[in-house]
Amino acid sequence: MLLSLLRPFNAFAGVRGQPAGSGGDPVTATHKEGSSHGFVILKDASGKLIAVGDQVTITRGSEVRSRLVIRFRDGSIDDDRTVFTQGKVLQLITDHHIQKGPSFKQPLDQEINVRAGTVTWHEFKDGKDQVNTEHMDLPPDLVNGMISDALKNFPANAAEMKVAYIAGSKPRIVHLSIKPDGEDPFYVAGIRHRARRYNIHIDIGGVAGVVAPVIGKQPPDIKMWLMDGEVPTFLKMEGELDQQGPIWTMELASPSWPSASQNRSK
């Protein structure tokens, strides 16, 4: 559901104890993205490695094109392509998200076009692929494909940040309530660092939001860890990647190199 985690947006300056924006306004672009290529790994609840992903970001002027592709060992694919602009504020242009394969209960193929005001999605029933397009009043704070860097810019004196997100097998606009949730240590080559933990709660809203917890449809909260500092960095996420799916852990990955003896043997 919320695999689109690795793209930027910024929070609002806020008064301590007050939300850093109540939703509806574009987010300010304080930390802007540059071109990069990184890697992530995905683990199941037992810690078993189940997938490896590539995150490629290309920046040209104020436009950013991002693609996160996660390839599962069982052949499943999670492919999310996002285009947005970063001027004074961040504005989503398009987001195309595909999930398919045995790791997902239901396949997903959803495309958001903010400028056209449309959401297109596929429904797969009885072996048939039905394509649906709906015109929607898309809010300017929509963050599909652009969540983790919101946290990179979370104001130190804010208690909460709220933004909009399109979710569900039949797309609907929900709101994400993001709050600081403490700190945890982590280590790099034995050197201790500090990670700030955030909690992301999905507010369904309306009548559906009232009954969702009662009937067991309320999505569980998502946890995300970032490193503070001059360049805030995404470290880890725990949560569902598809609706009513298992809780998985996504982490940054680094290359491993064969030993000198292995090289000589080759």
Mean pLDDT: 83
What is the count of structural domains?
A: 1
- For the termini, the CA-CA separation is 43 Å
Helix content: under 10%
Structural class: mainly beta
* Low-confidence blocks of residues: 3-22
Care to count the β-strands? 15
Shape call = globular
Summed up, the helix count is 3
What string gives the helices and strands in order? EEEEEEEEEHEEEHEEEH
What's the alpha carbon Rg, rounded to whole Å?
A: 19 Å
Largest sheet: 15 strands, antiparallel
How much β-strand is present in the residues? over 45%
Describe this structure in words.
By secondary structure, this protein is mostly beta strands. The chain has one domain (27-265). It has helices at 148-152, 206-215, 260-265, and strands at residues 27-28, 36-43, 49-60, 63-72, 77-86, 89-100, 108-113, 118-125, 128-135, 161-167, 172-188, 191-203, 222-227, 233-239, 248-253. The radius of gyration is 19 Å and the shape is globular.
Main attributes of the structure:
mainly beta
SSE blueprint and pairings:
Elements: E1 27-28, E2 36-43, E3 49-60, E4 63-72, E5 77-86, E6 89-100, E7 108-113, E8 118-125, E9 128-135, H1 148-152, E10 161-167, E11 172-188, E12 191-203, H2 206-215, E13 222-227, E14 233-239, E15 248-253, H3 260-265
Write a brief caption for the model:
This protein has 266 residues and is mainly β.
